[in-house]
Write a structure and sequence with these properties.
Strand order of the largest sheet: 1-2
Oligomer: single chain
Number of helices: 6
Shape: elongated
Structural class: mainly alpha
Number of strands: 2
Distance between the termini: 65 Å
Largest sheet: 2 strands, antiparallel
Number of domains: 1
Length: 160
């Protein structure tokens, strides 16, 4: 009996080795943390921790889906794994959180960039979970460059 329990807990069906999973999870945390830090530095409600948790959760969903795909649910044609459903579920969940961060105050919409950043953190987590860490790193670099570049431009033009 203990052998069955230990076998279940060891992730014996997993397609992703634990060391690779750890690298992907840490990459999701670090990359989303870069964006979250920029938001935190700007004094936004959803900052470092929020972005890191969203990205980690999205990454974990992908890792779990890869493990689930390896579990023998039935014979060949009986098994149906649709990764797009997982991406849709993560996207919808993060959009719900992001919408909660956006509010209107005195007729002015606030925190929309933070909401978009949370949505992006979910996408970065999905990329990391799928093993696309270079793509996630590229997206992170581009986004932080855009956020910082636009802030610099706004200051130069005196619009913000």
């Amino acid at each position: 009996m203990w052998e069955i329990v230990l076998n279940e807990m060891s992730g014996s069906f997993s397609e992703v080795p634990i060391t690779i999973a750890a690298v992907r999870l840490l990459a999701a945390l670090a990359l989303a943390g870069v964006i979250g830090f920029e938001r935190e530095h700007r004094g936004k409600a959803a900052g470092l921790r929020t972005h890191m948790l969203v990205s980690m959760a999205a990454c974990l969903f992908i890792l779990v889906s890869q493990s689930l795909a390896a579990i023998p649910f039935g014979s060949g044609d009986d098994t149906q794994i649709d990764p797009l459903r997982l991406i849709e579920a993560v996207t919808a969940g993060v959009a719900f959180l992001a919408a909660g961060a956006i509010f209107t105050s005195g007729g002015e919409v606030r925190n929309i960039t933070t909401g978009a950043g949370m949505w992006l953190a979910g996408a970065i987590g999905l990329c990391c979970g799928a093993g696309q860490v270079p793509l996630a790193a590229l997206a992170t670099g581009i986004v932080v460059s855009v956020l910082m570049g636009l802030r610099w431009l706004e200051r130069k033009m005196g619009t913000h």
